[in-house]
Specification:
The complex is a heterodimer of chains A (about 110) and B (about 120).
Chain A lengths: L8 E6 L4 E6 L6 E7 L5 E8 L4 E4 L2 E6 L4 E6 L8 E7 L6 E2 L3 E6 L1
Parallel strand pairs in A: 1-10
Antiparallel strand pairs in A: 2-7, 3-4, 3-8, 5-6, 6-7, 8-9, 8-10
Chain B lengths: L3 E4 L2 E4 L5 E7 L6 E7 L5 E8 L5 E2 L8 E7 L2 E6 L8 E8 L9 E2 L3 E5 L1
Parallel strand pairs in B: 2-11
Antiparallel strand pairs in B: 1-3, 3-8, 4-5, 4-9, 5-6, 7-8, 9-10, 9-11
The chains are: A mainly beta (about 110), B mainly beta (about 120).
Chain lengths: ~110, ~120
């Protein structure tokens, strides 16, 4: 079964606003990762949160993890036009990564 | 930072052609590389795990004779789509993990868009 299935969303927000997207998964995990994909490009690793962590920050990114609900959220604060991309969560450690469906975020300048 | 180069970035060819895609780790050695396939507006699906010096491990439902993988060196893995047909048209992405750094994230190439006419 595929892990890391976030609610498929297409977000369209104004520059400066915050963008929040969610991810749910099905089985137990050691960690969960978030990736960004610009249109027609490969994936860029954003952040990894371990199963014993509840929240993690990296610059304008804030990730939360609720292992009891098997869910994670990614918050991008003060969004910029350059944040326009698809965002995927992934589980499975660094072997057989399983990606979710992705959230497409459009930041309007 | 770690860089993975994927070539070519785009291929358009006739049905029946075999297409080879290269994935190179430019500044690190990668015992293991991964090949993914992505359809428009969909997620990445792992096709196979490429292991240097040994046979690739294919995911269920992926034809190994259709998608030939060779990982002959610690910096290069190739995916050959044999006798490609229109249904093989997709975005193919590779990733690599630095040898000895199993806790580090995978580094992705920029993908190859394959269009079979």
């Amino acid at each position: 079964s595929q892990q890391g299935e976030e609610d498929p969303q297409a977000l369209s927000i104004q520059e400066g606003e915050n963008a929040t997207m969610n991810c749910s998964y099905k089985t137990s995990i050691n960690n969960l990762q978030w990736y960004r994909q610009n249109s027609g490009r490969g994936l860029v690793h954003l952040i990894l949160i371990r199963s014993n962590e509840r929240e993690k920050h990296s610059g304008r990114l804030r990730v939360t993890l609720d292992t009891s609900k098997k869910s994670s959220s990614l918050l991008i604060t003060a969004s910029r036009a350059a944040d326009t991309a698809s965002y995927f969560c992934a589980t499975g450690g660094n072997n057989r990564l399983a990606f979710g469906k992705g959230n497409q975020v459009v930041v309007i300048p | 930072g770690a860089v993975v180069s994927q070539h070519p970035s785009r291929v358009i060819c006739k049905s029946g052609t075999s297409v080879k895609i290269e994935c190179r780790s430019l500044d690190f050695q990668a015992t293991t590389m991964f090949w993914y396939r992505q359809f428009p507006k969909q997620s990445l699906m792992l096709m196979a795990t490429s292991n240097e010096g040994s046979k690739a491990t294919y995911e269920q439902g992926v034809e190994k004779d259709k998608f030939l993988i060779n990982h002959a060196s610690l910096t290069l893995s190739t995916l050959t789509v044999t006798s490609a047909h229109p249904e093989d048209s997709s975005f193919y992405i590779c990733s690599a993990r630095a040898t000895g750094y199993s806790n580090q994230p995978q580094h992705f190439g920029d993908g190859t868009r394959l269009s079979i006419l």
